[in-house]
Design brief:
There is one protein chain. By secondary structure, the chain is of the alpha/beta class. It has 5 domains: 1-133, Rossmann fold (3-Layer(aba) Sandwich), CATH 3.40.50; 145-296 and 448-527, FAD/NAD(P)-binding domain, CATH 3.50.50; 314-441, FAD/NAD(P)-binding domain; 542-582, Alpha-Beta Plaits, CATH 3.30.70.20; 598-754, 3-Layer(aba) Sandwich (Rossmann fold), CATH 3.40.50. The chain has 19 helices and 32 strands. The protein has a 5-stranded parallel beta sheet, with helices on one face. Strands 13-20-14-15-16 form a 5-stranded parallel beta sheet. A 4-stranded parallel beta sheet has the order 2-1-3-4, with helices on both faces. Strand 6 (168-172), helix 7 and strand 7 form a beta-alpha-beta unit. Helix 5 (106-130) packs antiparallel against helix 15, helix 9 (317-325) runs parallel beside helix 10 and helix 10 (355-371) crosses helix 11. The chain binds iron/sulfur cluster (2 copies). Residues 541, 558, 560, 562-563, 578-584 line the site of one iron/sulfur cluster.
Length: 754
């Protein structure tokens, strides 16, 4: 596109009073853009001024220096055929001015704030020059058909809901019948007021609905053998349930990697990868996958003091449900339901237990009472969780004289001739207990089937399973707070017990959500845009392969397995798997990966557009590369709350810290800036990074660059990473001040001016 620039500076929202607008128009002029000003660019008249320039002068690249790009998005949207760049001079300059102090008078503060705003104007102009209109990626062929793995409540509901919107669905179920574990339930939890009575199972009706739906194909006694391809174009082979074999895994392990695997320093990415005798070797095309393979009861035999392995009078909750279904409660007149293992782990629940196991115990205690009105049930727990209306169910159970509930630490279960004795201490009664019962039921939790890494068997370069499942107890969510259905493989969505232990009504809602996500993934693939979290993003990473050294860093670091590679190690991108995080761009030492609107040259040039005074020791310059997901909003909110932001710092938003290429840090320091800080999401086990690994990877890269700086005679402390949550708006100014103080103590960059 031949660009015709239009630059606009807003003087509303206090900008005109806080800043010297003339110096801002001069900053734009330096970049070859004559800026117009207006008292409210977001208002009808302001927008009209820009539209007039578009219509009359052919302006197609618009630089708006005003408020944060996170606000007024509709008001300042001039269409997909225009480039619009937002420079933030409101939150990051006008609204975050420091207060006069002994060190700085008002004139100095105004001076510093104007310099900040001028830098943001310059950077916005440079960004406009370096941005190109995106050209959305289009698949050659796109399939709008959903594969549902698992024929239980979650899978059946997802299939039914997706089919109801007109999409074709195939359900693959490994057993001979649809229905899953719900076929074994005698009764269901109450769903209607007064939430006192157990309800008849609904699974039969759900199975009948699915079997009668012409949009749904059912394959029973079948499993998925492997899934290749990408959203909109998955290629799936099936196998007869229970068959297995071995095949060449897709991950090409290097010699170095094999060495690390052998030394236990790296997980074998191909562990669990299996070859099956495929019944359709050419595969069948699908657009998205819903993983609804459910859960398995947790193993409770590790708790030796409970003697589960030594007596048929000690069963799990799942086994008890089957006993009830099979009519085997004859002669059972007293049952102890143990919710927490006790022993050494006295305040813990069983692994993978949550509110569902609490509610199951209440339900099963009711079975005992309904089977024999003279029977007794004892529920011994550390945590009784009955969310929402289930509290009323709990209260009803509490009111039953035949059901005894107490918080208690179980110290042991001993089989006796006809039953067991349960010993417990620290009860609510303040007394130790010895209960002689006919049967003991242990609250085994619900282990997601993804714990078995082979469950999905992806033919991806990064291996067959979701990454790092061990870190997350086998759950595969990519971001448990913001994107509940998302896995770390785009286009594959989980629902039901494979995602979280949940009761049936919640499973139904969950499966409906996953069906919508699957539809969204296919439709986004059709439009060539990202699904999430950068919904609607039309860009995707482009590679200048002529300079690729096949180092494999991009393929290894992509958190979403979007990149396969050929035998030589050249990346093979799958753009519809891509979440547009830019981690590959940050990884590439050759700097040959970039997006049309976000690339190495663009950010590097923006950094160089920051004016670095080399003759004033009070005017140090510090670069802050800020994650747009949490840290940037936290900064905006800090400014909205009138917290001063240190005027020596210049902020540049990045898609994710994972996208930060260390070339930018070198650019900053070689242009004389005195320090560089990355502000991004929390990483580790309870990570908040929207791209799973980005902030963690950035932290490692910054450690490495610290070492490089040392070799150049620069202090590694000039580079730092800080973890910022979106709620840290009151803390972030101080975090910045502390870093700036450290840099002030180190003194100016010794390479300044060279
Ligand atoms: S690292 Fe991010 S941007 Fe790069 S291919 Fe993977 S998902 Fe896409
Ligand atoms: S990181 Fe860059 S050089 Fe290395 S394989 Fe990927 S594209 Fe090629």
């Amino acid at each position: 596109m031949d660009k015709k620039y239009g630059a606009y500076i807003c003087t509303g929202c206090g900008i005109g009073e806080a800043l010297d607008v003339e110096t801002l128009t001069s900053a734009a002029s330096e970049q070859g853009m004559e800026a117009k000003t207006h008292e409210a660019l977001c208002g009808a008249a302001g927008r009209q001024m820009i539209e007039d320039d578009i219509n009359n002068d052919g302006v197609n690249t618009i630089v708006v220096c005003a408020c944060s790009r996170r606000v007024m998005q509709d008001e300042l949207n001039f269409g997909d055929d225009k480039i619009t760049i937002r420079g933030n001079i409101r939150e990051q300059a006008a609204w975050c001015k420091e207060q006069p102090s002994d060190d700085k008078d008002q004139e100095t503060i105004d001076d510093f704030s104007n310099e900040m705003a001028q830098d943001y104007v310059r950077m916005a102009c440079v960004q406009a020059k370096k941005t190109e209109l995106p050209d959305p990626f289009q698949l050659e062929t796109l399939t709008r058909k959903i594969l549902v793995m698992g024929g239980g409540v979650a899978g059946l509901t997802a299939a039914k809901e997706a089919a109801a919107t007109g999409y074709e669905v195939t359900i693959v179920e490994k057993t001979d019948v649809l229905g899953g574990k719900a076929l074994g339930w005698t009764k269901q939890f109450p769903t209607k007021a007064p939430y006192a009575d157990l309800e008849e199972p609904t699974i039969g009706a759900l199975v009948a609905d699915v079997e009668g739906d012409s949009n749904i194909t059912v394959k029973t006694a079948t499993e998925v053998a492997r899934i290749g391809g990408a959203p909109g174009d998955f290629n799936v082979t099936f196998k007869a349930a229970g068959t297995s074999g071995e095949w060449d895994a897709p991950y090409k392990v290097t010699v170095d990697e094999q060495d690390k695997i052998d030394k236990g320093q790296m997980e074998d990415p191909n562990a669990g990868y299996k070859k099956y005798t495929e019944v359709n070797p050419d595969g069948e095309k699908f657009g998205a996958v819903i993983l609804a393979t459910g859960w398995t009861p947790a193993d409770v035999s590790e708790f030796e003091h409970l003697n589960y392995a030594n007596s048929d009078k000690i069963v799990t909750n799942a086994e008890f449900e089957k006993m009830v279904k099979d009519g085997q409660l004859g002669g059972i007149n007293s049952v102890a339901f143990i919710q927490s293992p006790g022993g050494e782990e006295h305040d813990m629940d069983f692994p993978y237990a949550n509110s569902v196991t609490s509610m199951v115990a209440l339900k099963q205690a009711k079975y005992v009472r309904e089977n024999n009105p003279d029977a007794k049930a004892y529920i011994l727990y550390q945590h009784m969780r009955t969310p929402g209306n289930m509290e009323m169910f709990y209260k009803g159970i509490q009111a039953d004289d035949g059901i005894f509930l107490t918080k208690a630490t179980v110290t042991g279960v001993e089989p006796t001739g006809n039953g067991c004795t349960v010993a417990a201490k620290d009860t609510l009664l303040g007394e130790d207990l010895n209960l002689d019962v006919d049967l003991v039921v242990l609250a085994a939790g619900m282990v997601p089937t993804t714990k078995d890494k082979a469950v999905i068997n992806l033919a991806y370069r990064q291996g067959p399973a979701f990454l790092d499942l061990d870190l997350f107890d086998g759950y595969s969510d990519s971001h448990f707070i913001c994107f509940p259905y998302e896995t770390r493989r785009t286009g594959v969505y989980t629902c039901g017990g494979v995602r979280k232990a949940m009761p049936m009504d919640e499973t139904i809602d969950d499966a409906t959500g996953a069906a919508l996500k699957a539809i969204q993934a296919m439709e986004c693939a059709d439009r060539g845009v990202a699904v999430h979290p950068r919904s609607g993003d039309q860009t995707y990473p482009e590679f200048f392969f002529q300079r690729c050294t096949q180092c494999k860093r991009c393929t290894e670091e992509c958190p979403f397995g979007a990149l396969d590679d050929d035998e030589k190690g050249t990346p093979l991108p799958n753009p519809t798997r891509c979440r547009r995080c830019g981690t590959c761009m940050g990884a590439c030492p050759e700097r040959i990966i970039g997006f049309k609107d976000y690339n190495i040259d663009m950010i590097g040039s923006m950094i160089k557009a920051i004016e670095v005074p080399d003759d004033d020791e009070d005017k140090l310059r510090i670069l802050a590369l800020v994650c747009e997901n949490d840290a940037m909003p936290a900064l905006d909110m800090a400014a909205m709350r009138k917290h001063p932001l240190n005027s020596l710092v210049r902020f540049i938003p990045v898609r994710c810290l994972g996208s930060v290429n260390m070339a930018w840090i070198k650019d900053a320091l070689s242009s004389g800036m005195d320090g560089a800080i990355l502000l991004g999401c929390k990483y580790g086990d309870d990570y908040q990074c929207h791209f799973v690994k980005g902030s963690e990877i950035a932290n490692k890269r910054m450690d490495n660059i610290g070492e490089t700086l040392s070799t150049l005679g620069l202090e590694p402390e000039r580079c730092a990473v800080r973890q910022i949550a979106i709620t840290d708006y009151d803390k972030v100014p101080e975090i910045l001040n502390e870093f700036v103080e450290e840099i002030v103590e180190l003194g100016p960059n010794p390479f300044k001016g060279f």
